[in-house]
Task: structure prediction
Amino acid sequence: MSSNQSNTQNGSEQKKNVTDSTQTSLSKKTEITIPEFEGSIVNQLVTKFTDKIVQVVYVRPGRTKILVPPNEIVQVATFIRDTLGFDHAESVSGTDYPKDNQIEVIYHLSSYSDEKLSSHVLALSTRVDRNDSRVPTLINIFKSAEYHERETFEMLGVYFEGHPRNERFLLPEDWADIPPLRKEFRIKGR
Amino acid sequence: MIKDLVNPTNFNLLVGKLGDVLTRALDLPLGYAINWGRIWSLWPVHLETACCSVEFGAASGPRYDVERFGIIEAFGSLRQCDLIVVQGTVTRKMAPRLRMVYDQMPDPKYVIAMGACAITGGLYIDSYNVLPGVDGIVPVDVYVPGCPPRPETLIQGCMLLQEKIKRSKIR
Amino acid sequence: MENFERKFDETIKMGLEIVKETEEDRLMTLSVGPQHPGSGHFRFTIKVDGDYIVYCDPDPGYVHRGEEKMCEYRNFIQNIPHLERPVIHDSTNITYSYSLAVEELTNIQVPLRGQYIRALASELNRQVYTLYWLGIYGIFLGHSTMFMWPLGDRELFIDLLEALTGARVTHAFNIPGGVRNDVPEGFKDRCLRQVAYFEKRLVEYEDIFYNNPLFRQRTEGVGILTKEDAIKLGVTGSVLRASGIPFDVRKAEPYDVYDEIDFKIQYMKTGDSYARSMVPFLDMKESCHIIRELLDKMPQSGEVRAKLQPNPKGPAGESYKRVESGRGALGYYIVSDGTPKPYRVKLSVGSFRNMLALPFLMIGSKLADMPSIYWSLNYWPVEADR
Result:
């Protein structure tokens, strides 16, 4: 386990935060102080679902990130919408990690209706196997993720179960190559 | 003497010589008149290809008024346009549509390639969805460089096209 | 007489059978395609039943140039020129968010004067973008004066930006660490004069366009988006504020110097096309006040950027930052793995998020309302395709 330390730009001197995005689990946290409000959000999630399901990746002022396994993501998302008050998805994207043989799908969620949460972005992420990537869709919970999930399907090859249209969206109709955002797709000349 | 003139072989020769004289007398001014009409009313098709369309829109604005050259955009049907300005990057999805639009325009038609992306692919030459230049699909008359070209550069490109049309022969 | 009546009845029955039509025959499919005076570089397919639209399916991707893939092959500073091309006339805002995210990853501190100049260029660019959008909106509703006036006034702002950055539209002015160069001499007076002139022009725009009875008839009550639907669909920017939700990233999550500037969020409650075209206009008015305040509070001297290193890099990590651009919240999600090139860059743009409202609003409305709904959603196709 490696812990990196980075200061945020606004110069919050007392807080040193841990960021770790290249490993799958984070069992011990060595941060000095966790911000109050963000810590309370994360604690609610960890107490409702056990530590095995919800793993906290980082807690920073204004941004938190949790990691859940793909088959639990629907109930965690329902809890986030109903109890915590997040109501829309700002973006859905995927990152290809060929070294771990995994693809990480990450949802950035925020809130318009709740005052205190409007500056906060919760990143809900899950990791799937690269060769057989299937994730249950979240459009029944957050409708705003519909077109983003379709784009992630065509760019990375992640199949969203339950999404009505897993089809080509931005690429040309005669695209016959592998999904372009995978790391083995090299663009010409480089 | 009249009998000599209306003799069939002589009559044909006379008509032939008259035709020659007429062609030489009227060809040049008629060609000049037709070219004059074509130059001062080039109507471009409303097909925006990519980001250079913003500078094309600014060229139609009041400061770089391109309407004084007769170039009026945004007409409904493309069957009455004779100029197509390829504004910016042409992607592989847009390329068949560009060719379809070019085929539907009536003759004579002219093409201006505007922007570095339409000439060689420009900044996006190593992208997976971009054609390296548009002259593989349509024959280009004038290349206007820039990224994006200033509206004055576009007007200079139109003037070069006008000179090219002036030099062309009417068949 | 009886013979005649019987024959008449039979003829009528025969006629009715001939014109009996099925459900499928009644629908007509239209493709509002890339070559269309009313659509820009974007295609959507609609099916109409008489005069009402029953199905709408957007088909973007005509300007998809693979920005996110290209970012992985260039280092942090080389990414700026091609990342500003999606919205060529609002280029300061789309690189502003990128610079904020990279500064967080690589631990660069921006000096105060640089922050003020960045915010000033961002506000000027917001005016330039909104004026172009207003011009195109006007001409596609048939109001060609509204095309000429904004484009003419926009040239004066472009002159200011050209004096500041050196280029008309693609500025490449923001870099991670600040801005490239300082303001020239006499810029502050020029800017204040231009803002005073523009405020007078805004009053004229309101008279000629927003109080025009034809425009009001075409847009009031058309394409109503309620507050709950706006939250559920996740729309952003002026579309959101026209449905009664006062959310602006500059107030909710202030970045740079926006927490020291005092301004009000402009929003309207009705949620129809008229509100969606009025909110950017009110934003422009508010922007004039912000420009005056920024010029007032800017420190007189100082550095404008941190000292640049050739290949800035930071520890492995990720960052998500968002900025309020002309279309809405523009967010960048950047993952870095410790090398000078980013590992993954994802743009979350306002136009792509607002595209979800297009089929939602079109279905059930009349065909003639199509331009006023489509253009009021503040959709720029090049940005949505990236």
